[in-house]
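Internal ticket #5521
Category: modeling
Description: The requester needs a full-assembly model to guide mutagenesis choices. All entity lines are attached below as received. Residue total reported by intake: 777.
Assigned to: D.W.
Attached entities:
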Amino acid sequence: MSETRPIIFVVDDDAAMRNALERLLRTVGLEVQVFVSAKAFLRTILPDVPGCLVLDVRMPGLSGLDVQRELTRTGVDLPIVFVTGHGDVPMSVRAMKAGALEFLTKPFSDQDLLEAIHRGIAQHRIARQARAEFSALRAGYDTLTPREQEVFALVVSGLPNKQIAGKLGTSEKTVKIHRGQVMRKMKAESLARLVQMAEALRANFPKV
Amino acid sequence: MQGKKVAGASRHQSNLGIVEPTQQTQALRDDLSAELAAMTKQQELSTSLLSRTHLQFLLDEILDATIELQNADFGNVQLYDSETRAFEIVAQRGFKQDFLDYFRSINDTAASYGRVLVESTRVIIEDVECDPRFEPHRAIAAAAGFRAVQSTPLFTRSGKPLGMLSTHFRQPHRPSERQLRLTDLYARQAADMIEQKHNENLLRQSEERFRLLVEAAQGHAFFSLDSEGRVSSWNAGAEQLKGYHANEIMGQHCARFYLREDAEQGKPQAELEIAAREGRYESDGWRQRKDGSRFWAHIVTTALRNSQQQLIGFSRIVRDLTEWKRAEEAKDAARKELARVARINTLGGLTAAIAHEINQPLSVIVTNINACTRLLSTEQPDLEEVRRAMTDIAGAATRASEVISRVRAFLRRDTVTAVPVVMERLIREALSHTQIDLEKHKILVKTELTHDLPLVLGDPVVLQQVVVNLVGNAIDAMSSVPDHSRILRMQLVARTPEEVLVVIEDSGSGLIPQDTERVFDPFFTTKPGGLGFGLPISRSIIENHGGRLWATSNPGGGATFQFTLPVAR
């Protein structure tokens, strides 16, 4: 996944600023997509790659903060670097509290911007990877039969096969077979790994 | 009635000749002596009534006297409670307990007794066995052993029912008119006594309530001082507020409540002297408690004089206003801050807008230069891209200079609104806007505003802002000089037929000659926290109106700011 080339999204209503940012980011080898307004950006279906959003706070129509709110609402975890022409403290506090990565006052130094962008990409990569791992776990879990899911829950709670058989009213041998299926389908090489998987699943999926 | 019979008999006797004078005289003498005895009794009664204080005793005396007067066998006095509408036997002679219990339970609608009050007249039942009015109570009357009843109502002087005075007889009977007339006198006496007693009780209760109120008053110290200023009474509030118990403070001089420096300056004595001279003295100031802690006190001192107008001491009410003072100070600070913010608000908004407008092209320039630097440091620089960046930089720089021109044009906007303005009214309104500040700083305002001057053409809002700003500066300039010498002189005159002149002269710290022009430079300020923009903006406003604004230093101290405005044509 890390070989996927990240994309930097730049949203600024000022054409000169958009051009300057695009030029700077391309110069350092980053792929850039620019948008003339918040609306144009939100309309776009984002490619499934790691990235970072460079967002002007003050724009006609929807503001940068509106974009941040909308992304949060739709579950898009793209890190945001805000830039503003006027250092407005309450506004920056609001943006940072809502999870912004950085808040830069124009004119900003290119080091500050690039450092923030790289940090954003790294953060997005980690988030994406965690999400991918969880999806794989979820997919594996969904292939389990209802009986296997029951056995899974009891196995990771630390019960030996004999007791699991007692609880489920079946033979120890049957439990052993189910258990083997669970380990295979979940691609778990050990009981310890299976317990880890159960925890990861429970964190996002309490039914397990 | 009896007297008449006697008289009739005498007249009859008179026909018999010689005996007539003697008999008549004798009858008259008897009559008069009886009357005299009754009057004497009543006189005795009233003196005894006056000398006693116990109501029960008074009522017993009256009842005994009435029974004696009417030759009655029993008697009682019932008081009427207007709230519960019930009678209570408060004095009685000759009744057994069961009768008392029975009558305790009757109310005013049930018995003939009630009629006494309802009809406000005496009721006489000559024979309880025959009189239908007494029918419901016959059994109890029989048990108590009486056949006849007389009840006389008792009223206050204002006519409110108090109760009744009743006598009872073992045999059917009707008291004589004379007896009844005297009974009325007794009843009047009794009613007066009851009323007086009642009023005394009310007075005592009221005094008691007042005493409790004074003693319990929270946060208020009530105490009195003798004519020398020594504590002569002390309430619980005083103990609470000042921390001294009455035992330890009685007889001590009030100087100990003052701060040491105030006491040393003779303030305690001086305040008492003012109170003695003027009757009453109110003041605010710091006082200290027993533990040395301070509080901001509001003190009312009232001189106490006896009937010969000699000073016998002082009463003092002290309230702790520390919290109030703190709140006032906080409010004052907030008001000042608000005024300051209001004065720089327009400017603040302006600078924010300018900053945003300028930062945008600056940011474009910086970002492009950074990109160029990186481009040029690669092995095969994309010079075409560098050239495009340079074009963008030039564009952004041009844009920045356009922003500056726009701002300047905005500040110079020639006539935003130009309406006829009455300068006299404008100045008065500006003064009323700054009144709180002027009063706060104890500044004496002297106005010499010429009436009916020609109108000025301009924007009243910004012109007023200029006046408010100049008054504000004057207030600030005078904060460093003593209260009594703070004078603001506002003058409005026609300088020429074409120009009006507004003069704002303060008695503040003044200006050094080289500063009279520098004060109009942006960022020049002598005030901490000031922005230094007020005067340059005021000047540009006046100049946009075709006038001039300048400052001079007064020979006697202080500064004068004046501006001219052309009159409307």
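Resolution: model delivered.
Comment from assignee: The interface with chain B takes residues 14, 16-17, 19-21, 23-24, 27-28, 58, 83, 85-86, 105-110 of chain A (CB under 8 Å).
Ticket closed.
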